[in-house]
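Weekly sync, protein design subgroup
Attendees: M.S., D.O., the rotation student, P.L. (late)

Item 1: inverse folding check
M.S. brought a backbone from last month's batch and wanted to see whether the design step gives back something sensible before we order anything. D.O. pointed out we never logged the input encoding, so this time it goes straight into the notes. Structure tokens as presented (154 positions):
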């Protein structure tokens, strides 16, 4: 009998803060399922996932709706979870050079405004995805996929 080793997945949480599009939330849920995310926290006015947009992933990925981002960060930090923001900001580290230490939570912000400076101050690290083209940013669900799969690869 040949035993196949089970690879332990790194413990990763997502915090979706003030994401306005139900389609982005659904796409992030599908990506989170594929990447083995432990739980998603929906904060601010981020909507609950809909079966139409998450295509069933909402049944497989644990999630919780919490209005206050600060209480989620405090809860995670109390459980020794590092809090990482994905944002283009001063002092941010290229996501490809970031060496993750688990468990960690990745915060994704609003599609237009991103994450505020006050939120970024609550984070242990800030990572960004370099842009080569004329646009300054990616769609939040696309950025989530790039960052998540980079984190689990490392």
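Designed sequence read out in the meeting:
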């Amino acid at each position: 009998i040949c035993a196949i080793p089970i690879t332990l997945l790194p413990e990763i949480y997502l915090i979706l803060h003030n994401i306005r599009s139900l389609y982005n939330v659904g796409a992030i849920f599908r990506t989170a399922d594929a990447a083995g995310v432990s739980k998603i926290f929906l904060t601010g006015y981020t909507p609950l996932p809909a079966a139409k947009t998450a295509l069933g992933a909402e049944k497989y990925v644990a999630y919780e709706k919490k209005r206050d981002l600060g209480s989620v960060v405090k809860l995670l930090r109390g459980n020794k979870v590092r809090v990482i923001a994905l944002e283009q900001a001063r002092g941010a580290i290229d996501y490809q050079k970031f060496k993750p230490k688990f468990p960690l939570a990745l915060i994704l912000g609003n599609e237009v405004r991103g994450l505020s400076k006050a939120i970024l101050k609550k984070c242990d690290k800030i990572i960004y995805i370099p842009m080569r083209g004329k646009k300054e940013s990616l769609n939040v669900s696309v950025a989530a996929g790039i960052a998540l799969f980079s984190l689990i690869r490392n």
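Discussion: Residues 22-35 form the longest helix (14 residues). The first strand starts at residue 12 and ends at 17.
Action: P.L. to compare against the previous round before Friday.
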